[in-house]
Specification:
The protein is mainly α. It has 3 domains: 196 residues, Serine Threonine Protein Phosphatase 5, Tetratricopeptide repeat (Alpha Horseshoe), CATH 1.25.40; 103 residues, no CATH class; 96 residues, no CATH class. The protein is 43% helix and 6% strand. It contains 16 helices and 8 strands. The two termini are 30 Å apart. The relative contact order is 0.12.
């Protein structure tokens, strides 16, 4: 997806944003409100939050985490298809799926603009920490604000370098005469990302007050750093970064797999990096994220829950081992039975029987929304649902892969133990013999 272009960045108006805690559906402070009783924020970088919230808000933007994002990260794989109707999205969507992406592709250009806008907001935070003498802050508050901004910036650049390869590297707010920036090689971008994440991991808090769930933490920085190292095949470094998350005591695999992806699984002990969203009855799409709506079931009547993009396909279906419970939480099948078998393969996670009128044979069950919240918000879009970016299981599996690549008897044993811990959680409640422990490293 390399593209040759220079960018023109415009600083857009800041939008306030904050995360919510466990009572998000029943007793939620409106996201982004900044009140006198909130200041100074507990364990927070209060003096710079107005700038930080503008950056966090972009995690929920269409260009950062909606159609283009899952076209580039999921649909282009062998595990998913575009879905929807054949003509929806036109040639731009087809080229994203089939790889010949041209410079005028709307989805690609939309992501490019959105991610550089996101980066500009991160750089605005850093500029204010460094030069705005009107803001009174302690050294600790300055370090924490810098760490949050650098984590978010690293995440943006990590996606950009994987999407496009050579890209402009912008580490400051630009003056008008600095808008044309040449491309940097991927190796330079990765070195920059590593430096940002290392700084973030050293200076971010281990956790936040529950009111600010979703803000950047040490676990988020180390988890993303592990993925950055793994992408570059820096096995020992990836193993070390993942191990920092695993030994932090902040995360575990106790959340049942069946609930991880639904509303009740939000911000669970498995959540490492999760984009926060919410809604209200009066404003059903308030402070939400479009990623869920774009993947919702596309069908008439009560099943009109979204646009039906990013659907799991038969390649992924065939990859599951027999009786693997994760398959049922991934595939939401169109009903094709004249009479229902037992157990019923055409039920949603909330017990509804699916319909025969669906356009696609299956949809993404992981983003299927709770019917009670649809009724509460008088809305079917699902924008209140959080987006999972990095789970603890991802970190454990990255550790397993890295340890196996590093090699040596001790590391191989550790790799198998990590891998089998994820399989053990997944097989809970399944028939005996499902997902048995892997005992050698040469198994397919």
């Amino acid at each position: 997806m390399n593209t040759r272009k220079n960018i023109i960045l415009a600083l857009i108006a800041t939008i306030m944003f904050s995360s919510t805690g466990c009572q998000k559906f029943l007793d939620t402070q409106r996201q982004g409100e900044y009140t006198t009783e909130d200041y100074p924020y507990p364990s927070g970088s209060g003096p710079y939050d107005v700038f930080l919230y503008a950056a966090y808000n972009d995690l929920r933007s269409y260009g950062v985490h909606a159609t283009g994002f899952f076209l580039a990260t999921s649909v282009r794989s062998d595990d998913a298809d575009k879905g929807s109707s054949p003509t929806d999205g036109g040639a731009d969507a087809s080229s994203m799926d089939l790889f010949p992406v041209l410079p005028n592709n709307g989805f690609s250009n939309g992501m490019w603009t959105a991610y550089y806008t996101f980066i500009a907001k991160c750089n605005t935070v850093l500029q204010n920490v460094e030069t705005n003498n009107n803001i009174v802050a302690t050294d600790a508050q300055k370090l924490q604000a810098q760490a949050e901004a650098r984590f978010l910036r690293a995440y943006a650049y990590f996606n950009l370098v994987r999407f496009y390869g050579r890209i402009p590297l912008i580490d400051k707010v630009l003056a008008v005469d600095q808008y044309n920036v040449p491309q940097s090689q991927p190796a330079q971008i990765y070195a920059f990302i590593e430096a940002d994440l290392q700084f973030a991991a050293a200076n971010l808090p281990v956790s936040w007050d529950k009111k600010f769930v979703g803000r950047s933490s040490k676990g988020m920085a180390n988890g993303l750093l592990a993925k950055v190292y793994l992408t570059q095949q820096k096995w020992a470094a990836a193993m070390g970064a993942a191990n920092m998350v695993m030994t932090s005591g902040q995360y575990d695999l106790t959340t049942p797999y069946n609930t991880i992806f639904g509303e009740t699984g939000e911000n669970s002990k498995e959540s490492v990096f999760e984009v926060q969203a919410t809604a209200s009855a009066s404003v059903p799409t308030d402070n939400g994220i479009e990623a869920i709506q774009w993947q919702g079931v596309r069908a008439p009547g009560d099943w009109n829950l979204g646009y039906g993009w990013n659907v799991p396909n038969t390649n992924l279906e065939n990859a599951y081992e027999a009786n693997d419970p994760r398959k049922a939480r991934t595939f939401l099948y169109r009903n094709t039975a004249a009479t229902l078998a037992s157990p019923n393969p055409f039920k949603t996670v909330y017990g509804e029987t699916t319909a025969t009128t669906w356009e696609n044979p299956a949809y993404n069950h992981k983003v299927y929304t709770n019917p009670s919240f649809r009724a509460l918000y008088n809305n079917r879009a699902g924008r209140w649902m959080n987006m999972r970016v990095l789970r603890y299981a991802d970190v454990v599996l990255m550790y397993a892969e890295a340890a196996n690549e590093v090699g040596g008897a001790g590391n191989i044993t550790a790799a198998l133990a990590a891998l089998n811990s994820v399989r053990a959680r997944a097989r809970t409640g399944a028939p005996a013999g499902t997902l048995p422990d892997v005992v050698t490293t040469d198994q397919a």
